[in-house]
Amino acid sequence: MAERGYVIFPEFLPKDEAQALFNYAQNLGEPDWNIAGIGREQQHTVNTRVRSDQIRWLHPEHAIEQSYLSTMDTLRQYLNRRFFMGLFDYECHLARYQPGAFYKKHLDAFKGRSNRVLTTVFYLNPEWTPNDGGELIIYGESDTVLETVLPQQNTLVMFLSDTFVHEVQVAHKERFSITGWFRHNTSLGPRIDPPR
Ligand SMILES: O=C(O)CCC(=O)C(=O)O
Ligand SMILES: [Fe+2]
């Protein structure tokens, strides 16, 4: 993480916890999902040419959501102790990519204009093969491909939000993940990044 700015953990949680999150995501009803937007506040727009996934912000009222949030808070404290990152909080949402959905090349944060510091993506599907598409591609300098990540259950990817351009290739089957951001406490107004 400190040297490259990103890291991939193939087995992040105990297996049963990852599977429980998958079951939970899969059993959510249609009204639980929202069309994902881009940008923040007034600039928040729904642009299905850039991304076509659906999201659900995690809230501590649901035990299983709380459990993931609390794991990530432990990770936040560890990162602060180990790397002095000054991470202030964490927000995350479940994401559902239905067959045909994608998220074109983008950065999660623009230098100096966002308080998102570190992106985390945690994958939930138990069986995912290269034929299923939906890979996360992480780009380096001049569009070189640094990593192609299969969205396989229990893999966690973490990268600096304002540094790595990335994209989600078209998924050929339903793809579930939890995307989140560790943030700095800079004041950018009362509401920050996509309104919940
Ligand atoms: O699901 C992924 O692999 C990445 C999602 C993403 O880039 C995002 O939600 O900003
Ligand atoms: Fe992203």
UniProtKB/TrEMBL annotation:
<dbReference type="InterPro" id="IPR051559">
    <property type="entry name" value="HIF_prolyl_hydroxylases"/>
</dbReference>
<keyword id="KW-0847">Vitamin C</keyword>
<dbReference type="Pfam" id="PF13640">
    <property type="entry name" value="2OG-FeII_Oxy_3"/>
</dbReference>
<keyword id="KW-0223">Dioxygenase</keyword>
<dbReference type="GO" id="GO:0008198">
    <property type="term" value="F:ferrous iron binding"/>
</dbReference>
<dbReference type="InterPro" id="IPR006620">
    <property type="entry name" value="Pro_4_hyd_alph"/>
</dbReference>
<dbReference type="GO" id="GO:0031543">
    <property type="term" value="F:peptidyl-proline dioxygenase activity"/>
</dbReference>
<keyword id="KW-0560">Oxidoreductase</keyword>
<dbReference type="GO" id="GO:0031418">
    <property type="term" value="F:L-ascorbic acid binding"/>
</dbReference>
<dbReference type="InterPro" id="IPR005123">
    <property type="entry name" value="Oxoglu/Fe-dep_dioxygenase_dom"/>
</dbReference>
<dbReference type="GO" id="GO:0071456">
    <property type="term" value="P:cellular response to hypoxia"/>
</dbReference>
<keyword id="KW-0408">Iron</keyword>
<keyword id="KW-0479">Metal-binding</keyword>
<protein>
    <submittedName>
        <fullName>Proline hydroxylase</fullName>
    </submittedName>
</protein>
<feature type="domain" description="Fe2OG dioxygenase">
    <location>
        <begin position="83"/>
        <end position="184"/>
    </location>
</feature>
<dbReference type="InterPro" id="IPR044862">
    <property type="entry name" value="Pro_4_hyd_alph_FE2OG_OXY"/>
</dbReference>
